[in-house]
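Entry type: protein chain
Record version: 2
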Amino acid sequence: MLPYPHRHLLAIEGLEPPYIASLLDLAESYALLNRQGKTQRDLLKGRTLINLFFEDSTRTRTSFELAGKRLGADIVNMSVSTSSVNKGETLLDTASTLNAMQTDLLVVRHGQSGAPALLAQKVDAAVINAGDGTHEHPTQALLDALTIKRRKGRLEGLIVAICGDVLHSRVARSNIHLLLTMNARVRIVGPPTLIPAEAARLGVEVHHEMRSGLEGADVVMMLRLQKERMTGGLVPSAREFFRFYGLDAAKLAWAKPDAIVMHPGPMNRGVEIDSAVADDPLRSVIGEQVEMGVAVRMAVLDVLARNQRRNI
């Protein structure tokens, strides 16, 4: 295992290929242990992991909770809706409280881009970004990469089409950074209103039609419409969006015959993906993504805890 060089995991951008590969290898070993029903409950024994979620996310929070428990950590889930934050406490006040609790590992999801990075400057704990605004969601990109690698045997040279609401998607940004770093080819596909202005500068191919975007793709990654982040009429209607950009069997036929289908969840069936495609046992790896999420988060908790031990 190559030593992870950072105290926190705040973003994929800037993370070099050897460290990404090392995290994926460790996560693969945890995936195998999980399938065998084996755990390492003494690895984080005596360590405190706090899940601090300012936005709802059952899947990500539960995944981190399960990962921490399998490694033996003491888990605290802080519900912001009932916490002092809702009574006017600032983010920096929260940091002081967390320091007083002697937290070891802090998982943060926040609606504002940069909030986890700000907390990381103020807390003694190792901070993991579980999604901040429209910025990044690093562990999602890692679990997606692990899922792809397990199915395709590699990342390098693959054509990955990321489709839908790229503009508001932190998942898309983290995946773009990771896949390009690992020498995959990335296409983003969607209406002009849902493609970020800086997309071409990121090194991706931009497509506004599903046919050209999916043609010859090895991986088709669908994104949900994030209506809660939209202002104005960026899409005419859900029905119209599905007609042009929703993934169904006819559109999937434009990709390679062995192309896999991914979705970070939660899915809007009949909006960005058809149920028959989402549930296709041969093409869909959506369930495997959830499984790999636990393994990846175990790997991240493991390496950050090791760094803390070295710094004691």
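Comment: The longest helix spans residues 286-311.
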